[in-house]
Amino acid sequence: MFVDYLFLPFDALRALENDSWLLANIFSWLFIVIGIVAFVYWMLQLKKYDDNNEEDKSISSHSYL
C-alpha cells in the first residue's frame, strides 16, 4: 500500500527533478515562505503588545520566580 499508492506524489516529484529543479522544490519554497510570513506576523504581534505595555514584566509575575 505504501510503496504502490502513498509514495506516488514523492515519485512524481523525484521524476520532475530531472526536468525542472524549481518545480520539484516548489513545496519547500512554499513552506519556507509560509514560515517567514508567520514569523514576521508573530514578531509584529509581540511588538504591538510590548508597545502597549500589556505584559507584566515584574520579577514576581510568576510564582516560580
Characterization of this structure:
- The chain starts with a helix and ends in a 14-residue tail after the last helix.
- Helix content is 69%, strand content 0%.
- It is elongated, with a radius of gyration of 22 Å.
- The model has no long low-confidence stretch (mean pLDDT 86).
- It is an all-alpha fold.
Summarize the structure.
By secondary structure, the chain is an all-alpha fold. It contains four helices and no strands.
Strand % is: under 5%
- Please summarize the sheet with the most strands: none
The outline comes out as elongated
Mean pLDDT: 86
Runs in which pLDDT lies below 50 for 5 or more consecutive residues are none
N- to C-terminal separation? 53 Å
User: What is the alpha-carbon Rg in Å?
Assistant: 22 Å
SSE class: mainly alpha
Number of helix segments?
4
> SSE order, as H and E?
HHHH
Please provide the count of β strands. Answer: 0
Bin the helical content.
55-70%
